[in-house]
Specification:
mainly alpha; 2 helices; 79% helix; 0% strand
């Protein structure tokens, strides 16, 4: 069990180092401005999508609140 955890930690460390190296490489490259612009646009779109989905979820919850139906099972005594 300990070996398995050690392997997972090592793989996570290697993956993190690889991601960090890739980010460092691209941020020091000539395409840095293009990459940052793409990341900002993607983050902006993601934020907009999340806000739209939150608003849709709020509408669904409000619609359920408007429905006045007793969904509890009847317990004949």
């Amino acid at each position: 069990m300990s070996e398995n955890n050690g392997t997972k930690i090592l793989l996570a460390f290697i993956a993190g180092a690889a991601v960090g190296a890739a980010i460092g490489y691209f941020l020091n490259s000539d395409k840095k401005d293009e990459i940052l612009t793409d990341l900002k646009e993607g983050a902006s779109k993601l934020k907009k999508d999340i806000e739209e989905n939150i608003n849709k979820a709020k509408e669904v919850v409000d619609n359920f609140r408007k429905v006045d139906i007793d969904l509890t099972p009847e317990n004949p005594e």
